[in-house]
Specification:
270 residues; alpha/beta; Rossmann fold; seven-stranded mixed sheet; four-stranded antiparallel sheet; 9 helices; 25% strand
Amino acid sequence: MGMLAVVIQAGSGSCRPAGIAGVCHGVCMDEGLWDAYDRMGLSFQEHAADSAYNAHYDRPAVLAALGPVTGLRVLDAACGPGLYLRELLERGAKVSAFDASPVMVALARQLTANQVRIEQAVLGEPLPYPDCAFDLIVCALAIHYASDRAAAFAEFCRVLRPGGAVVVSTQHPFMDWLRKNGSYFQTTLETDIWPGPSGEQPVHFWREPLSALCAAATDAGFLIEKLVEPIPAESMRERYPEDYEKLSKEPGFLILRLLKPATPKPSTPS
């Protein structure tokens, strides 16, 4: 979704520039995890609308990876407060969405003037859509909150038509490992502390190696068409010069564009 001015790494007592673990588009996707977004509510939406890492880094790169969407059936998975929904509607997409947070669902409905059917559902659990219902799926900065990433990708594959695509953005696992230390290859539930208007807010997320994330996608039936390590949009240079300088030298996020094959892979002879 978004970030606040400083991320305090839990357990370290040190302050970090915001935008690595302090940003997500969707919501934390297990009981107790998405509560943070319920508490942040409107202040989070207002922040994410023009934050460096959301408005000038993730959204431009993800929208570019999606490509033209006019007339396409697009699912915004873990839609947060609706900022992507607004962009997709303006580009002519036929949009549906879901989020686990009731507060985020309400904000997204309000932002889109109830033009979009937005369900309350959890990433990584069965989704309330029929098979092959969508041409495109966007899941921006939320997959690292799903407690079962493999199940999340499997559901994406089910509700996506053959030949369709999924664009997923997430925190860069290598940069998270540099911040958090420990084993790069161990899947770990991490915690960051976000400062906010009502005090410090713990935010939990799953850190896992890139190979594990890619395996979850390909095991579900997807082909990896493209892996993008985005560079900041030029709009960030003047608005947030320090963040622009940092992200021009090292990645904060990465993006996967995944394809569902138009024909199923042939089974391997036993």
